[in-house]
Amino acid sequence: HQKATLTSKKNLIHMDGKNETSQQMHSIKKSNVAANESDDTPAAPRVRKHLDNAAVKNILEKIKIIVQKKQKRGNDAGRASRKRKLENNDNLAAKKEETMLETSNQSIPTDLSHIPQKSLVDIEMELVYTDEEDISFEFAEPVASTSTGSAPCGSEKENALRAPNDSTLPQIDKQLQTTLQEASTCYREENYTAAAEQFSTALELCSKGAAIDNPSESSPEDISSIASFIETKLVTCYLKLKKPDDALNHSHRSIILNSAYFRNHLRQAAVFRCLERYSEAARSAMIADYMYWLTGGTEQRTSKLIKVYWQAMIEEAITTEVSFSVMYTPFGTEVKANEIKKIEDMFAKKHPDYVEHVYTDPHGLHILPQTTKWPSLPPQQYLLTLGFRNKHIGKILERWSNKKLPIFSERKAPFCPLTKAEIITYWDNTGKKIIPVIDFIRSSKLTDTFCACSSGIEKLHYASFLGRLGRAKEQSQMINQAMAELATLPYLQDISQQDAQLLQSLMADAMDTLEGRRSDKRRVWNKIQKV
Q: Keywords for this entry (predicted)?
């Protein structure tokens, strides 16, 4: 049956659903999902002071730095754009219409392309599993590496993980450097268990202060970037060991510690893919693509590979979902209510099995990899229309999408705590059915229109719910995921002073929750829910 459609006023373009190839891919991927339930090592408290310093206490200053970098990048892109416009004197309106027609006729495939499993594996080998020797510092200017030069993967370099003598980048502690070199040797020898043990030891050294040769000359952000480098190494080790569940928290923490590095987001996407959480993988790949451009990436091949990965994850999310279907409609200006009605009528004709409840995401701003080209053209924006087999779930999602600060539960009496039996009933009947839809909506939506922190708040509510269900490990993973989302937020959109203070409070309370401090009822996100 048809699972997704992209429409325009002039053309109707179908994205057809499941076929034999996608089912084979699904079975192959399912075999990679690990059932290992062991605790992540090292635990979050081991890097507590780095999180406190870089991601919590200095979040306001960090936002200022990010804004400056975004403005500089935006100005550079603006200058390039103006130069192109001078070279091409076509009428702007005609050019816009031409772009829309190109979107409708060429840029979007007529069918789901079902990107082969081998292509995804090749992309991961090139961009995810590469044995990096360079530490990416979040606020290095200009972007530079800490090694003495580039070298192919698998090369032995005595001065790896070290800044050149004339570099302003910090010098890595010698003991830590030795440990990291031993870990990299194990990784190259495909002894991933030993490599994970060595990287865990390196992270322990880092948490004890053995990160920089001269700590007095380093900043908390520098230490965080080094810790992030180690966390992301642990991600690749656990993925190689086919333990994506063990890799998950490490992927989140690598982003919390250094949100600017695009590979951290792409590795998070790879973890989600192995866990068959395709919508979340798509969002991580989308952010990776944006961050690659924002931080100065210029290699078109790299950006293209990330977009292919993003596209594959969206397609996989569509073909594996059975409870709802979707339709994207490109638009250039504000869409009126009568036009939305026509779009939803068109959806009903094309997807008759999903008409128990149909609604269009009122906030737009969805983007797709096929028509996103940072920064040469503004991304084509789409309306997302969703149709459901279950009317109750559809109505809940429509109410959720219209809230300024969405909360996970739909309690009629928020001041009355739910009993354990009520929580289980709510989860079985509603909770586990709305989460996949929320994740899919965000797979093509880079920013939030209302409160900038709404995505993080929703995940923290979800984490509290998991805690009430007694699912402690999943609660920890969701809190870390929320913190990664919040830490990345200043790069994705402009942050007001009020949002920055809320962001800081959310991050601090999330860390306290991970460490078991204070009652969950006193958290910022629960106070917001009561209001």
A: Cytoplasmic vesicle, Developmental protein, Differentiation, Golgi apparatus, Spermatogenesis
Is residue 60 very low, low, confident or very high in pLDDT (cuts 50, 70, 90)?
A: low
Residues 265, 413, single domain; the answer is no
Place of tokens 């502690």: 173
φ, ψ for residue 324, nearest 5 deg: -150, 160
Angle between helices 497-514 and 472-492 (to 10 degrees): 160
Query: CA-CA distance, 87 to 210, in Å (whole number)?
Result: 54
Radius of gyration of the chain (CA): 23
Q: List the structure tokens of 258.
A: 């250094």
**Any idea what DSSP says for residue 333?**
S
Residues 6+ apart with CB under 8 A from 237: 187, 192, 193, 195, 196, 199, 247
Number of domains the chain contains? 2
User: Could you say which DSSP state residue 172 is in?
Assistant: B
End position of a domain, from candidates 293, 316, 335: 293
Whether residue 65 lies inside any domain: the answer is: no
Q: Distance (Å, rounded) from C-alpha 241 to C-alpha 234?
A: 10
As given in the structure block, the two tokens for residue 419 are: 């009993």
Q: What is the pLDDT of residues 234-262, one digit of tens each?
A: 999 999 999 999 999 999 999 999 999 99
Beta strands in 364-500 (DSSP E): 381-388
Residue 248: give the domain boundaries. 112-128+171-293
The Cα–Cα gap between 482 and 462 comes to: 10
Contact between 206 and 233 (Cβ < 8 Å):
no
Asked if residue 361 belongs to a domain, the reply is no
Q: How far is CA 296 from the centre of its chain?
A: 19
The Cα angle at residue 56 between residues 54 and 62, in degrees rounded to 5: 55
In degrees and rounded to multiples of 5, residue 4 shows phi and psi of -160, 150
Q: What is the pTM of this model?
A: 0.80
SS (H, E, C) 3-48: EEEEECCCCEEEEECCCHHHHHHHHHHHCCCCCCCCCCCCCHHHHH
**Rounded to the nearest 5 degrees, what angle is found at the Cα of 319, between the Cα atoms of 318 and 325?**
50
> pLDDT (tens digit, 9 = 90+) per residue, 370-409?
999 887 778 888 999 999 999 999 998 888 877 766 555 5
Whose structure tokens read 């200095």?
58
| Strand order, beta sheet including 12-16 | 12-16, 2-7, 324-331, 381-388, 357-360
Buried residues in 162-182 as b, exposed as e (16+ CB within 10 A) = bbeeeeebbbbbeebbebbbb
How are beta strands 324-331 and 2-7 bridged, if at all? parallel
Q: Do the Cβ atoms of 522 and 472 come closer than 8 Å? A: no
Q: Helix, strand, coil: what percent of the chain each, to 5?
A: 60, 5, 35
